[in-house]
Amino acid sequence: MGVSESLTGVPSEAAREVKKVRRASDHDPASRAIKRRNLARTRSALLDAASEVFAKTGYAKASLEEIAVAAGFTRGAVYHHFSSKEEIFLAVIARRDQELLAGYEPDLSAGLPSNSQASAAHWQKEHGTAESDVALRLELRSQALRSPAFRRRLVSVQDAAVEATSAKLSKVAADQGMVWRLPVEYVAELFHAASHAAAERSVLTGESSEHRMAAFIELIWNGALGAPTREG
Q1: Domain that holds residue 123
Q2: Same domain, yes or no, for 20 and 133?
Q3: DSSP 3-state assignment of 229?
């Protein structure tokens, strides 16, 4: 029984007014917008904390309680957004993939083929020293090998990243009147695979992989992208 209720358990007039105000706010567009922003900020903070915890302690040792503490929230806040440790782990990777694709927007918007050296320099800046990102993806693969169910969910996240990249590459090429000689989803998947492998090597060896990525990008532009075939 709340403090605003009578001893009989019947809500007082003040309590009824509070509930009325709350119900009204639920239908107010401005209140709903504020609530959505607050939820988005909480989710983002939880993903930031989870990214750090998973990279530092590994998936097996990490706990939702540790993530909640790192983010400054209760465990209940974590469960409000994510049903399990597995779900928040996959959400961390999905968000990272979205952020990385958005980071390449300026290069792609400049047109294809982009300058391979400039694109590789951008890649090195985004990936070359991203130890936490490499650690997270190694943890992902390790966990996927142990759990068939997790493996299927991981493949779905990876497929979504490839699909988003494919859509972007298709649009940019079409806008310039160019075509992909190979299925664009294969090109997108190769970009992701080469990027992850080069980033891992760069982090493990401490050496830049920029020149490797420049060579790979040049191969893609020369081998997979071309002008449309003229008819007649």
Answers
A1: 85-227
A2: no
A3: coil
Burial class (CB in 10 A: 0-12, 13-18, 19+), 27: exposed
| φ/ψ of residue 179, rounded to 5 | -130, 160
| Closest alpha carbon to 136 in 102, 165, 96 | 96
What are the backbone dihedrals phi and psi of residue 82, each rounded to the nearest 5 degrees, phi first? -135, 135
- Two tokens, residue 81: 């957004």
Which amino acid is located at 163 in the chain?
A: E
**Residue 192 covered by a domain:** yes
Q: What is the CATH number of the domain that holds 55?
A: 1.10.10.60
CB 62 within 8 Å of CB 84: no
190 and 109 assigned to the same domain: yes
- 141 shares a domain with 214: yes
Confirm whether 62 is domain-assigned. Answer: yes
pLDDT (tens digit per residue) in 58-107: 888 999 999 999 999 998 999 999 999 999 999 999 998 888 888 787 77
At 201, list the tokens. 């090597």
User: Do residue 97 and residue 161 come from a single domain?
Assistant: yes
Cα-based distances in Å from 116 to 129, 158, 218, 225: 20, 25, 6, 13
Asked if residues 194 and 213 have their Cβ atoms less than 8 Å apart, the reply is yes
